[in-house]
């Protein structure tokens, strides 16, 4: 790791010496050379394992987690890497890099360590930014999975078309097995790539689809083939993620009963619609950082809990704590976040969330610009810990407090490249103990 840090510093200094236009011209070749250089340095370890790459705008982390549990449930040794953290067999550690897909040398080193540990499979989140920087090159993908596609990272890619093209590159190199979400409007953009075997999934159609589905905010029950599964994860989006993982298990000939049992053992996904408390009021932490994912979380939680339907008293409130992650990036999302909060939330706490070098107050201004209501209670509290505290202090019996944007992350990115230790979940637990 020390050698990699030194290399990073050397490369950074070299880049600073090269005129920007010259570097941008040679940038693709630079990234490609680094990717293959890292693979060569560690002996192309992916060639001796089955690597499953999962891409899409939403659901990558959860799908990686579910696939890992299914493969482990069938007796295989598995490594996994993504925003939820790193895993090699039973050893797990957090991802503190502030990027889902590590740099080329770190990634190849991880694959080499997984190989030495005897892993048969590696499940990997593949991001559009990672593909843009060629981090996927030098990796032999056995299976490519597409979850969905929504507008994101446009400031980096320049257009939605470029964003799609970046995602598509995984399917150009992953031509053995492919798993595709047939429900997604961009399905055909990914279905056009050849594969030895391909499986589609969806909530309404596809090779793998649920029957007799009952979807709630904290669990779902549905049937695939002859297996009836109770999934301890709420929302239709999590059923979709489970179907993606089920499809991968099917491709690798995992018995349906094993898939069912593996999924039913999962109590929650860290930071993904994670209920920290359910009584006397709900407190939920979620990573949602795009308008589509935020709306999916809000609409799922907005449903009245069945045990409160016939009770007499005030309607349960949805109390929302939110900001806008990624200072300097995807600013278009901010007013949309505000509009969604206005649509679904009964009380709003606007707060700080990975501002990097941008003015945190300006970020909140842009989120609030999407809120047109003059009567909705809105609190602007830059101190995220204080915002969480006040939101929890506001909650009454039956209410739901949802804290979005960071999920299971363990640091917050602030000015001058600094990262401060952070955990929404631990802060929630601290206040709930009082």
Automatic annotation (TrEMBL):
Residues 271-407 form the Mur ligase C-terminal domain. This is UDP-N-acetylmuramoyl-L-alanyl-D-glutamate--2, 6-diaminopimelate ligase. GO terms for molecular function: ATP binding; tetrahydrofolylpolyglutamate synthase activity. It is found in: Cytoplasm. NCBIfam families: murE. Its main location: cytoplasm. It comes from the Bacteria. Transmembrane segments: none annotated. Keywords: ATP-binding, Cell cycle, Cell division, Cell shape, Cell wall biogenesis/degradation, Cytoplasm, Ligase, Nucleotide-binding, Peptidoglycan synthesis. GO terms for biological process: cell division; cell wall organization; peptidoglycan biosynthetic process; regulation of cell shape. Residues 54-247 form the Mur ligase central domain. Gene3D superfamilies: Mur ligase, C-terminal domain, Mur-like, catalytic domain. Belongs to the MurCDEF family. MurE subfamily. Coiled coil: none annotated.
């Amino acid at each position: 790791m020390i050698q990699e840090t030194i290399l990073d510093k050397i490369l950074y200094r070299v880049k600073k010496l090269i005129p920007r236009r010259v570097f941008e011209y040679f940038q693709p070749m630079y990234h490609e050379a680094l990717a293959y250089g890292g693979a060569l340095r560690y002996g192309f370890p992916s060639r001796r394992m089955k690597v499953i790459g999962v891409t899409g705008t939403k659901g990558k982390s959860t799908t990686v987690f579910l696939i890992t549990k299914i493969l482990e449930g069938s007796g295989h040794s598995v490594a996994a890497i993504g925003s939820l953290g790193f895993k090699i067999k039973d050893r797990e550690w957090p991802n503190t890099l502030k990027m889902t897909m590590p740099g080329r040398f770190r990634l190849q080193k991880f694959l080499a360590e997984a190989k030495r540990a005897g892993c048969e499979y590696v499940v990997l989140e593949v991001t559009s930014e990672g593909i843009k920087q060629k981090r996927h090159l030098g990796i032999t993908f056995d299976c490519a999975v597409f979850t969905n596609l929504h507008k994101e990272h446009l400031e980096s890619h320049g257009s939605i078309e470029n964003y799609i093209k970046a995602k598509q590159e995984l399917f150009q190199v992953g031509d053995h097995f492919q798993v595709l979400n047939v429900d997604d409007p961009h399905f055909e953009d990914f279905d056009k790539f050849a594969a030895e075997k391909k499986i589609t999934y969806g909530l309404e159609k596809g090779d793998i689809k649920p029957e007799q589905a009952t979807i709630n905010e904290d669990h779902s029950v549905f049937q695939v083939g002859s297996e009836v599964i109770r999934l301890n994860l709420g929302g239709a989006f999590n059923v979709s993620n489970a179907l993606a993982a089920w499809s991968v298990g099917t491709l690798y000939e995992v018995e349906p009963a094993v898939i069912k049992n593996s999924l039913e053992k999962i109590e929650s996904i860290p930071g993904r619609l994670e209920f920290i408390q359910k009584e006397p009021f709900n407190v939920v932490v979620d990573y949602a950082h795009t308008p589509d994912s935020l709306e999916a979380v809000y609409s799922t939680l907005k449903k009245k809990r069945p045990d409160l339907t016939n009770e007499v008293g005030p309607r349960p409130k949805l109390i929302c704590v939110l900001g806008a992650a990624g200072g300097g990036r995807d600013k278009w999302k901010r007013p949309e976040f505000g509009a969604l909060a206005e649509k679904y939330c009964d009380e709003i706490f606007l707060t700080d969330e990975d501002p990097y070098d941008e003015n945190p107050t300006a970020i909140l201004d842009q989120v609030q610009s999407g809120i047109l209501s003059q009567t909705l209670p809105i609190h602007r509290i830059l101190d995220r810990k204080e915002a969480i505290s006040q939101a929890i202090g506001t909650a009454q019996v039956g209410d739901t407090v949802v804290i979005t944007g960071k999920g299971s992350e363990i640091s917050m990115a602030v000015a001058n490249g600094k990262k401060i230790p952070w955990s929404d979940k631990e802060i929630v637990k601290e206040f709930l103990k009082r």
